[in-house]
Amino acid sequence: MLNNANTESSILIIYTGGTIGMVENPKTGVLEPFDFGYLNHNIPELQHIGCNITIEQFTPPIDSSAIKPDLWAKVALMIQENYDRYDGFVVLHGTDTMAYTASALSFMLKYLTKPVILTGSQLPISKLRTDGKENLITAIEIAAATINGHPRVPEVCIFFENHLMRGNRTSKISADQFNAFESYNYPKLAYAGIDIKYNDSVIRYPANWNKSLEVKPNMDANVAILKIFPGITREVVEAILSIPTLKGVVLETFGSGNAFMDEWFLNALSNAVKRGVVIINVTQCVTGYVDMMRYETGHQLMNTGLLSGYDTTTECALVKLMYLLGQGYSNEKVKQLMEQSLRGEINR
């Protein structure tokens, strides 16, 4: 525990793994996880934040490429267990799958009224030019911020390189730039410059601050992403859509939700839908939305039983399918909820 002189807020940091928590072995040059119990030594600036900070650490740390739904559940349950003891939560996570985890937590943490801020870095925190220090310090400040006696940002977010974004609206856009994440279809929730400027009009505030947190950790991973491309073969499409255990598919289409109209393709989609597979249509474009009424091709896809993903990200659409299927809902209810905004993930 890092005890600061002027304790105003209590923040729990959950370190799952990732580049931010790495140090370079001086003998081998290999990046290895360091003990976050020594965080004060690495970031002495934390003494001046004015928060009481506690650190929980995954042992061993998990590379973000190895993250699975059971680890999303582990983070969600850690937040639930500590929910009444802390004012906010900062989750340190590898960047590669951070958008998936942020989306998952947004659905798992029902009736959330406290900040859950995910962050990480492109360079280890021990490096001279690391982005990790600023990302972590600002994420803690945001998690501790209040307005009118309530948390300033009571939702699951990603903070990275000056920008606070709704977690389930975010995608990783760069493997080697500090500005690694973007929220193309939804405004930033805050910008951290000299001051942190909040965009209160787009922050999602709860209708009832007194609702108790409910954690829904169950996920069903019998889903797939099918990205169409010019020349994709019948064998590839049918191989995916005919998987016996398949329950849901995120279909990445062209433009505003369009695809080729070969009879075999439409039949494959239609047959999968008739078997109970939920297929959600999302665009391959980084901005914009699916409108299956705009062109004839989109209209035909809708007639096969595809659902519109509107302006959701692929990461969020996939995780939302896993979440809804994991709740044991009927096929019709899953379809109904996929086209509704549950946590601000789509504009509906």
Automatic annotation (TrEMBL):
InterPro entries: AsnA_fam (IPR006033), Asp/glu_Ase-like_sf (IPR036152), Asparaginase/glutaminase-like (IPR006034), Asparaginase/glutaminase_AS1 (IPR020827), Asparaginase/glutaminase_AS2 (IPR027475), Asparaginase_C (IPR040919), L-asparaginase_C (IPR027473), L-asparaginase_I (IPR041725). Residues 222-338 form the Asparaginase/glutaminase C-terminal domain. Pfam families: Asparaginase, Asparaginase_C. Gene3D superfamilies: 3.40.50.40, L-asparaginase, N-terminal domain. This is asparaginase. It comes from Porphyromonas macacae. The active site is at T19, T95. The keyword Magnesium does not apply. PANTHER family: 60 KDA LYSOPHOSPHOLIPASE, L-ASPARAGINASE. Belongs to the asparaginase 1 family. It comes from the Bacteria. It is an enzyme of class 3 (hydrolase).
